[in-house]
Amino acid sequence: MDRAPAPEGMPGTPADLRSGLDRQRELYRRLFAHAVRQRDALRSGDTAALLPIVEEKRSLLAAGEEVDRALAPWRERWAELRGHLDADDRAGVDALVGQVEEVLRALLAIEEECTRMVEEGLTVTRGEIQKVTDARKLQSAYHPPAPPPESRFLDRTE
Fold this sequence. Notes:
Number of strands: 0
Structural class: mainly alpha
Number of helices: 4
Largest sheet: none
Distance between the termini: 103 Å
């Protein structure tokens, strides 16, 4: 027999663990698909498409927190619990963990790309705002604004 007796307080069965990891993998795949849509919207400048994507991602992240909570007892005691799984269960769990990690790496890479795109856009926008601000300062230096017509008093420097 390859499996040790289950320790007291085991968070569930190996099938529960595989199910949780499978849900996590599928959730990350859906988040990856949303990140691709987000990247495409950023590339094309389609800002109107970003809000629904972000809202959907928020919903998926909330679901991810639920899955993460369900897997937390396994993660916290993995060194201890791993020895209580038979070889087939360990192999299945290890394969799922590898798939989750692979999808997560791809997701993080595309999210980093999106972050860079947004930061670059902010830098360009800041530059444009600075140009407008400088132009207004220059214009007001040579052409001070006229007092509003409803002013009753006017300060004059003599």
